[in-house]
């Protein structure tokens, strides 16, 4: 599998977009649980989204983005193939014997 960084530009944040957000969040959470999305970030003014997608090729990654519930509200979609994507590993808290 390869990693692809997407920069997604949203149109002005409206009530129509707000109505789609719960379905979009559920979809993104499902992709996270499947290991298909590796990271997901939204800018403070809600006009840009960055996500790293794990896919076999760019076409499969783009098809995943096309299935995002917010896709009809994207103004621009940029895809960048990544050589690698590093993140901090999730760690469990230390065990206390108290």
Question: Could you explain the architecture of this structure?
Answer:
The protein is an alpha+beta fold and 98 residues long. The protein has one domain (2-79): Dimeric alpha+beta barrel (Alpha-Beta Plaits), CATH 3.30.70.1060. 29% of the residues lie in helices and 33% in strands. Strands 2-3-1-4 form a four-stranded antiparallel β-sheet. The mean pLDDT is 92.
Task: Break the fold down into its secondary structure elements and pairings.
Blueprint: E1 2-10, H1 15-33, E2 37-42, E3 48-55, H2 58-66, E4 74-82
Antiparallel strand pairs: 1-3, 1-4, 2-3
In short, what is this structure?
This protein is 29% helix and 33% strand. It is α+β, with helices and mostly antiparallel strands and 98 residues long.
Terminal Cα separation, in Å? Answer: 44 Å
State the low-pLDDT regions, or none: none
> If helices are DSSP runs of H or I spanning 4 or more residues, what is the number of helices?
2
CATH fold node name: Alpha-Beta Plaits
Write the H/E string, N to C. EHEEHE
Radius of gyration: 15 Å
CATH C-level category = Alpha Beta
CATH architecture: 2-Layer Sandwich
Mean pLDDT: 92
Largest pleated sheet = 4 strands, antiparallel
Strand tally is 4
């Amino acid at each position: 599998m390869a990693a692809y960084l997407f920069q997604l530009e949203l149109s002005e944040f409206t009530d129509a977009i707000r109505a789609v957000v719960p379905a979009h969040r559920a979809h993104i959470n499902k992709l996270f649980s499947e290991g298909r999305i590796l990271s997901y970030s939204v800018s403070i003014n809600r006009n840009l989204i960055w996500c790293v997608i794990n896919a076999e090729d760019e076409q499969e990654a783009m098809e995943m983005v096309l299935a995002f519930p917010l896709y009809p509200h994207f103004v621009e979609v940029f895809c960048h193939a990544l050589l690698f994507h590093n993140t901090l590993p999730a760690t469990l808290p230390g065990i206390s014997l108290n």
